[in-house]
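[09:14] KT: can someone run the structure on this one? pasting the chain below
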Amino acid sequence: MKTRRRARRVTLETLYEFDLANHPAGEVLQRRLEENPMERSGVEFASHLVHGVIQHMAQMDKLIARYAPEWPLDQMAVIDRNILRIAIFEFLIDGQTPVKVAINEAVELAKTYGSDSAPRFINGVLGTLAEQLPSLKEQILMPTPE
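[09:31] RB: done, structure tokens below
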């Protein structure tokens, strides 16, 4: 399995435990990396994703709530919520991953970890966000006061 894909899996497992049990993300990530050793670039990528998602979680959760209104965040499956956060961080906030790659990787995570309907749900929400990318980037760069 490719290094970045493995790093995304470790990231998802870390965020899942952080979200569900409120365990310290750094400790969870360290434990996951000890259980799933990988090359340095994968460790750095997983760490970057975990910290970036946590740092921007509130902002991303507002987007998820807006673009998946039929599924309130607190009722959404923990796996789905965190897969969406990872992908949104990658293509919208961090901007280092091409949109199509981030969506494809998210769908693959959903196939592995989510329910039968998760891949379609993840793809739909992220596809809608991708269509709004230019205006969303403006909102991210220049957030409106609340």
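[09:33] KT: thanks! The domain at 3-141 is CATH 1.10.940.10 (N-utilizing Substance Protein B Homolog; Chain A).
[09:34] RB: yep, looked fine to me
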